[in-house]
Specification:
Blueprint (H helix, E strand, L loop, with lengths): L12 E2 L4 E3 L6 E3 H6 L5 H10 L34 H9 L1 H11 L4 H23 L1
Antiparallel strand pairs: 1-2, 2-3
Helix pairs in contact: 3-4, 3-5, 4-5
Length: 134
Amino acid sequence: MSTKCPKCGGDAEKISANRFECPYCGENFTMQDQMNNAGMGYGNYQAASYNNNPPMPPYAQPAAAIPNAPQYQQQPAQVSQEDCSGWLKALSFLIPLVGLILYFVKKNEQPVGAKSCLNWAIAGFVVQIVFGLI
């Protein structure tokens, strides 16, 4: 993208790190001058649209940036030490794949119940192998 002259709108040439000169009207300016005068000429509009960020609407700001916003802290998940129900144990024993799935689903919230389902699934798998061989 070329830089436009704020006076005539022509393509300006870069003469140093942030200085520009218009070959058509001889205007010397910096990119900062161009941004300060945004909206007054054709070239200013392009430069300002890329360099100026519009303010964020309130709903998009983080809660810390909004005054008087309630601050919520995430509570750690409650870990239950309860065992799983009898019908889940029976289901895990009869269909070991279900017991394995229950273990991975419940291992974070109910570690004791998940371990019980896994144990019954392993027992059911062993029994199915033994009866399959006899």
